Protein: Agmatine deiminase family protein
Organism: Lysobacter panacisoli
Amino acid sequence: MNQTAHASRFPAEWEPQSAVLIAWPNADTDWADRLGEVEETYIALVAAITRFQDAIVCVADEDVEAYARARLSSARIDMARVRFIEAPYDDTWLRDSGPITLRDGDGFRLLDFRFTGWGGKFDASQDDLLVERLFDAGIFSKSSRQSIDFALEGGAIDTDGEGTLLTTWQCLHERHPETSREQLGANLADWLKQDRVLWLDHGYLEGDDTDAHVDTLARFAARDAIVYQDCDDPADSHYAELKAMGAELAALRTTDGQPYRLFPLPWAKPIVDEGRRLAASYANFLIVNGAVLMPAYGDEADAKAQAVLAQAFPDREIVPVPCRALIWQNGSLHCITMQLPKGVVA
Protein backbone atom coordinates (compact mmCIF):
# COMPACT_ATOMS: atom_id res chain seq x y z
CA MET A 1 0.00 0.00 0.00
CA ASN A 2 1.20 3.56 -0.60
CA GLN A 3 0.08 6.95 0.65
CA THR A 4 -2.17 7.58 -2.36
CA ALA A 5 -4.25 4.61 -1.20
CA HIS A 6 -5.09 6.40 2.06
CA ALA A 7 -7.98 8.86 2.23
CA SER A 8 -5.91 10.72 4.85
CA ARG A 9 -2.22 11.63 4.88
CA PHE A 10 0.26 12.78 7.51
CA PRO A 11 2.26 15.54 5.79
CA ALA A 12 5.99 15.98 6.26
CA GLU A 13 7.15 19.04 8.16
CA TRP A 14 8.78 20.50 5.05
CA GLU A 15 5.46 20.75 3.21
CA PRO A 16 3.80 24.23 2.99
CA GLN A 17 2.58 25.59 6.32
CA SER A 18 -0.06 28.07 7.46
CA ALA A 19 1.55 28.92 10.78
CA VAL A 20 3.59 27.72 13.73
CA LEU A 21 1.79 27.29 17.05
CA ILE A 22 3.56 28.21 20.31
CA ALA A 23 2.56 29.06 23.90
CA TRP A 24 3.98 32.10 25.68
CA PRO A 25 5.91 31.31 28.89
CA ASN A 26 4.61 32.96 32.05
CA ALA A 27 5.07 32.90 35.82
CA ASP A 28 2.63 30.00 36.23
CA THR A 29 4.72 27.68 34.04
CA ASP A 30 7.94 25.85 34.89
CA TRP A 31 9.86 28.76 33.35
CA ALA A 32 9.06 31.01 36.32
CA ASP A 33 12.56 30.97 37.85
CA ARG A 34 14.24 32.06 34.59
CA LEU A 35 11.42 33.81 32.79
CA GLY A 36 13.51 36.72 31.50
CA GLU A 37 16.02 34.41 29.80
CA VAL A 38 13.43 32.22 28.12
CA GLU A 39 11.37 35.21 26.95
CA GLU A 40 14.38 36.33 24.92
CA THR A 41 14.38 32.95 23.16
CA TYR A 42 10.66 33.23 22.44
CA ILE A 43 11.09 36.73 21.04
CA ALA A 44 13.90 35.51 18.77
CA LEU A 45 11.77 32.53 17.74
CA VAL A 46 8.72 34.62 16.83
CA ALA A 47 10.97 37.07 14.96
CA ALA A 48 12.39 34.16 12.93
CA ILE A 49 9.00 32.51 12.26
CA THR A 50 7.34 35.73 11.11
CA ARG A 51 10.03 36.33 8.51
CA PHE A 52 8.49 33.38 6.66
CA GLN A 53 4.92 32.84 7.88
CA ASP A 54 2.42 33.45 10.67
CA ALA A 55 2.85 32.60 14.34
CA ILE A 56 -0.12 31.67 16.52
CA VAL A 57 0.69 32.40 20.16
CA CYS A 58 -1.33 30.76 22.92
CA VAL A 59 -1.62 32.99 26.00
CA ALA A 60 -2.94 32.07 29.43
CA ASP A 61 -5.02 35.23 29.91
CA GLU A 62 -5.46 38.86 28.83
CA ASP A 63 -2.56 40.09 30.96
CA VAL A 64 -0.14 37.58 29.43
CA GLU A 65 -1.34 38.58 25.96
CA ALA A 66 -0.83 42.28 26.65
CA TYR A 67 2.66 41.62 27.97
CA ALA A 68 3.64 39.31 25.10
CA ARG A 69 2.26 41.77 22.54
CA ALA A 70 4.31 44.57 24.07
CA ARG A 71 7.52 42.52 24.15
CA LEU A 72 7.12 41.37 20.55
CA SER A 73 6.14 44.81 19.27
CA SER A 74 9.17 46.40 20.92
CA ALA A 75 11.36 43.88 19.07
CA ARG A 76 10.01 45.30 15.78
CA ILE A 77 8.36 42.03 14.83
CA ASP A 78 5.76 42.10 12.05
CA MET A 79 2.69 41.93 14.28
CA ALA A 80 0.42 41.44 11.27
CA ARG A 81 1.84 37.90 11.25
CA VAL A 82 1.20 37.27 14.96
CA ARG A 83 -2.15 35.98 16.21
CA PHE A 84 -2.97 35.45 19.88
CA ILE A 85 -5.37 32.84 21.20
CA GLU A 86 -6.35 32.58 24.86
CA ALA A 87 -6.20 29.02 26.21
CA PRO A 88 -5.01 27.67 29.57
CA TYR A 89 -1.92 25.43 29.59
CA ASP A 90 0.35 23.83 32.15
CA ASP A 91 3.52 24.43 30.16
CA THR A 92 4.74 25.43 26.72
CA TRP A 93 5.86 22.15 25.09
CA LEU A 94 3.35 22.29 22.24
CA ARG A 95 5.14 19.69 20.13
CA ASP A 96 3.75 17.18 22.61
CA SER A 97 0.41 18.71 23.61
CA GLY A 98 -0.55 20.34 20.30
CA PRO A 99 -2.49 18.83 17.39
CA ILE A 100 -1.04 16.26 15.00
CA THR A 101 -2.65 17.25 11.71
CA LEU A 102 -3.58 14.90 8.89
CA ARG A 103 -4.71 16.05 5.48
CA ASP A 104 -8.13 14.41 5.17
CA GLY A 105 -9.56 14.62 1.65
CA ASP A 106 -10.15 18.31 0.98
CA GLY A 107 -9.88 19.17 4.68
CA PHE A 108 -7.98 18.22 7.80
CA ARG A 109 -8.22 15.93 10.80
CA LEU A 110 -6.68 17.03 14.10
CA LEU A 111 -5.51 14.00 16.05
CA ASP A 112 -5.95 14.61 19.77
CA PHE A 113 -3.91 11.94 21.55
CA ARG A 114 -3.67 11.74 25.33
CA PHE A 115 -0.93 13.92 26.79
CA THR A 116 0.16 12.48 30.15
CA GLY A 117 3.10 14.75 31.01
CA TRP A 118 5.58 12.25 29.51
CA GLY A 119 4.25 9.25 31.36
CA GLY A 120 3.01 11.06 34.46
CA LYS A 121 6.24 12.90 35.30
CA PHE A 122 4.43 16.27 35.44
CA ASP A 123 0.87 17.54 35.80
CA ALA A 124 -0.69 17.83 32.36
CA SER A 125 -4.41 18.22 32.99
CA GLN A 126 -4.66 21.56 31.13
CA ASP A 127 -2.27 20.52 28.36
CA ASP A 128 -4.32 17.39 27.69
CA LEU A 129 -7.32 19.63 26.88
CA LEU A 130 -5.41 22.05 24.65
CA VAL A 131 -6.29 20.60 21.24
CA GLU A 132 -10.00 20.46 22.13
CA ARG A 133 -9.93 24.05 23.38
CA LEU A 134 -8.13 25.34 20.29
CA PHE A 135 -10.57 23.46 18.08
CA ASP A 136 -13.56 24.90 19.97
CA ALA A 137 -12.06 28.39 19.65
CA GLY A 138 -12.53 28.12 15.90
CA ILE A 139 -8.95 28.73 14.74
CA PHE A 140 -9.01 25.74 12.37
CA SER A 141 -10.60 25.59 8.93
CA LYS A 142 -12.25 22.61 7.22
CA SER A 143 -11.20 20.44 10.14
CA SER A 144 -12.49 17.68 12.36
CA ARG A 145 -11.02 16.57 15.70
CA GLN A 146 -10.40 12.90 16.48
CA SER A 147 -9.86 12.09 20.16
CA ILE A 148 -7.62 9.02 20.62
CA ASP A 149 -7.29 7.43 24.05
CA PHE A 150 -3.61 6.62 23.67
CA ALA A 151 -0.59 8.45 25.06
CA LEU A 152 1.50 9.83 22.21
CA GLU A 153 3.59 13.00 21.91
CA GLY A 154 4.39 14.76 18.65
CA GLY A 155 8.09 14.73 19.51
CA ALA A 156 8.05 10.93 19.55
CA ILE A 157 7.35 10.58 15.82
CA ASP A 158 8.69 11.88 12.51
CA THR A 159 7.30 11.21 9.02
CA ASP A 160 8.59 11.57 5.49
CA GLY A 161 5.07 12.48 4.30
CA GLU A 162 5.02 9.42 2.05
CA GLY A 163 4.07 6.72 4.51
CA THR A 164 7.23 6.08 6.54
CA LEU A 165 7.31 6.86 10.27
CA LEU A 166 10.48 7.06 12.38
CA THR A 167 10.26 6.57 16.14
CA THR A 168 12.11 5.13 19.15
CA TRP A 169 11.25 1.93 20.97
CA GLN A 170 12.32 3.32 24.35
CA CYS A 171 9.71 6.08 24.38
CA LEU A 172 6.76 4.08 23.07
CA HIS A 173 7.58 1.09 25.26
CA GLU A 174 7.87 3.35 28.31
CA ARG A 175 4.38 4.77 27.66
CA HIS A 176 2.80 1.40 26.82
CA PRO A 177 4.84 -1.34 28.53
CA GLU A 178 2.15 -4.01 28.10
CA THR A 179 1.89 -3.56 24.31
CA SER A 180 4.12 -5.41 21.86
CA ARG A 181 6.22 -3.67 19.25
CA GLU A 182 4.08 -5.24 16.53
CA GLN A 183 0.84 -3.93 18.06
CA LEU A 184 2.31 -0.47 18.70
CA GLY A 185 3.50 -0.31 15.11
CA ALA A 186 0.10 -1.37 13.82
CA ASN A 187 -1.65 1.24 15.96
CA LEU A 188 0.66 4.04 14.80
CA ALA A 189 0.33 3.01 11.17
CA ASP A 190 -3.46 2.98 11.47
CA TRP A 191 -3.92 6.29 13.28
CA LEU A 192 -1.19 8.17 11.42
CA LYS A 193 -1.91 6.59 8.00
CA GLN A 194 1.56 5.15 7.58
CA ASP A 195 2.70 2.19 5.50
CA ARG A 196 5.62 1.27 7.74
CA VAL A 197 7.22 2.18 11.07
CA LEU A 198 11.02 2.32 11.45
CA TRP A 199 12.13 1.73 15.05
CA LEU A 200 15.35 2.96 16.63
CA ASP A 201 16.57 0.91 19.59
CA HIS A 202 19.54 3.15 20.43
CA GLY A 203 20.04 6.83 21.17
CA TYR A 204 19.40 8.97 24.23
CA LEU A 205 20.41 12.31 25.72
CA GLU A 206 21.20 13.02 29.35
CA GLY A 207 18.84 15.67 30.67
CA ASP A 208 16.02 14.50 28.42
CA ASP A 209 12.89 13.49 30.34
CA THR A 210 10.89 12.41 27.28
CA ASP A 211 12.35 8.88 27.27
CA ALA A 212 14.21 9.45 23.99
CA HIS A 213 11.93 11.43 21.72
CA VAL A 214 13.03 10.94 18.13
CA ASP A 215 12.98 14.70 17.46
CA THR A 216 16.06 15.08 19.67
CA LEU A 217 17.88 12.26 17.85
CA ALA A 218 17.03 11.75 14.16
CA ARG A 219 14.78 13.54 11.65
CA PHE A 220 13.79 13.15 8.03
CA ALA A 221 15.15 15.90 5.76
CA ALA A 222 13.63 14.37 2.61
CA ARG A 223 12.07 11.03 1.71
CA ASP A 224 15.60 9.62 1.27
CA ALA A 225 17.56 11.68 3.81
CA ILE A 226 17.92 11.66 7.61
CA VAL A 227 19.69 14.20 9.81
CA TYR A 228 20.85 12.82 13.15
CA GLN A 229 22.70 13.82 16.30
CA ASP A 230 26.17 12.32 16.33
CA CYS A 231 28.83 12.28 19.06
CA ASP A 232 32.51 12.38 18.11
CA ASP A 233 33.97 12.37 21.64
CA PRO A 234 34.87 8.80 22.74
CA ALA A 235 35.15 10.01 26.33
CA ASP A 236 31.56 11.27 26.38
CA SER A 237 28.88 9.14 28.04
CA HIS A 238 26.72 9.39 24.89
CA TYR A 239 29.37 8.10 22.49
CA ALA A 240 28.51 4.39 22.37
CA GLU A 241 24.73 4.88 22.19
CA LEU A 242 24.81 7.54 19.48
CA LYS A 243 27.32 5.56 17.42
CA ALA A 244 25.01 2.54 17.74
CA MET A 245 22.10 4.71 16.60
CA GLY A 246 24.15 5.90 13.63
CA ALA A 247 24.75 2.27 12.67
CA GLU A 248 21.01 1.56 12.94
CA LEU A 249 20.26 4.49 10.65
CA ALA A 250 22.87 3.30 8.15
CA ALA A 251 21.13 -0.09 8.04
CA LEU A 252 17.69 1.39 7.27
CA ARG A 253 16.43 1.39 3.69
CA THR A 254 14.03 3.62 1.78
CA THR A 255 10.93 2.13 0.18
CA ASP A 256 13.07 1.82 -2.96
CA GLY A 257 15.51 -0.41 -1.10
CA GLN A 258 18.26 2.23 -1.02
CA PRO A 259 20.24 3.39 2.03
CA TYR A 260 19.28 6.79 3.36
CA ARG A 261 21.52 9.77 2.77
CA LEU A 262 22.74 10.51 6.31
CA PHE A 263 23.77 13.89 7.72
CA PRO A 264 25.49 13.58 11.13
CA LEU A 265 25.25 16.69 13.30
CA PRO A 266 28.21 17.85 15.41
CA TRP A 267 28.35 17.44 19.17
CA ALA A 268 28.30 20.48 21.44
CA LYS A 269 30.59 20.53 24.47
CA PRO A 270 28.79 19.41 27.64
CA ILE A 271 26.52 22.11 29.07
CA VAL A 272 26.11 21.66 32.82
CA ASP A 273 23.68 23.64 34.99
CA GLU A 274 23.93 23.34 38.78
CA GLY A 275 25.63 19.97 38.32
CA ARG A 276 23.08 18.68 35.81
CA ARG A 277 23.97 17.82 32.20
CA LEU A 278 21.58 19.47 29.74
CA ALA A 279 20.42 17.95 26.47
CA ALA A 280 21.83 20.18 23.71
CA SER A 281 20.67 18.53 20.50
CA TYR A 282 20.99 20.13 17.08
CA ALA A 283 18.45 17.61 15.74
CA ASN A 284 15.70 19.60 17.45
CA PHE A 285 15.36 22.04 14.54
CA LEU A 286 12.09 23.46 13.16
CA ILE A 287 11.27 23.53 9.44
CA VAL A 288 9.22 26.51 8.22
CA ASN A 289 8.36 27.82 4.77
CA GLY A 290 11.68 28.47 3.05
CA ALA A 291 13.88 28.00 6.12
CA VAL A 292 15.10 25.75 8.89
CA LEU A 293 15.25 27.33 12.35
CA MET A 294 18.21 25.80 14.15
CA PRO A 295 18.80 25.64 17.92
CA ALA A 296 22.01 27.45 18.81
CA TYR A 297 23.74 26.94 22.15
CA GLY A 298 26.61 29.41 22.09
CA ASP A 299 29.03 26.60 21.28
CA GLU A 300 31.64 26.47 18.50
CA ALA A 301 29.69 23.50 17.09
CA ASP A 302 26.79 25.88 16.24
CA ALA A 303 28.46 26.94 12.99
CA LYS A 304 29.23 23.33 12.05
CA ALA A 305 25.61 22.34 12.69
CA GLN A 306 24.45 25.21 10.50
CA ALA A 307 26.69 23.94 7.69
CA VAL A 308 25.35 20.37 8.00
CA LEU A 309 21.75 21.57 7.90
CA ALA A 310 22.55 23.70 4.84
CA GLN A 311 23.73 20.51 3.11
CA ALA A 312 20.63 18.58 4.17
CA PHE A 313 18.25 21.41 3.19
CA PRO A 314 20.00 23.07 0.23
CA ASP A 315 16.96 25.11 -0.81
CA ARG A 316 16.28 26.63 2.61
CA GLU A 317 17.86 29.37 4.67
CA ILE A 318 19.31 28.10 7.97
CA VAL A 319 18.43 30.52 10.78
CA PRO A 320 20.03 30.03 14.22
CA VAL A 321 17.82 30.75 17.25
CA PRO A 322 19.44 31.00 20.71
CA CYS A 323 18.12 28.03 22.72
CA ARG A 324 20.46 27.63 25.67
CA ALA A 325 17.69 28.89 27.97
CA LEU A 326 15.32 26.18 26.74
CA ILE A 327 17.48 23.17 27.56
CA TRP A 328 17.36 24.13 31.25
CA GLN A 329 13.87 22.61 31.07
CA ASN A 330 15.05 19.60 29.03
CA GLY A 331 13.79 20.55 25.57
CA SER A 332 14.70 22.78 22.67
CA LEU A 333 13.31 24.55 19.60
CA HIS A 334 11.24 21.81 17.97
CA CYS A 335 9.81 20.84 21.36
CA ILE A 336 8.13 24.22 21.95
CA THR A 337 6.56 24.51 18.50
CA MET A 338 3.98 22.75 16.33
CA GLN A 339 3.67 23.49 12.63
CA LEU A 340 0.19 23.74 11.10
CA PRO A 341 -0.13 22.66 7.45
CA LYS A 342 -1.17 25.14 4.76
CA GLY A 343 -4.94 25.66 4.72
CA VAL A 344 -5.73 24.40 8.21
CA VAL A 345 -5.81 27.83 9.89
CA ALA A 346 -9.13 29.68 9.57
User: Anything to note?
Assistant: The longest strand covers residues 143-151. Residues 3-341 form a domain with the L-arginine/glycine Amidinotransferase; Chain A fold (CATH 3.75.10.10). The two ends are 32 Å apart (CA to CA).
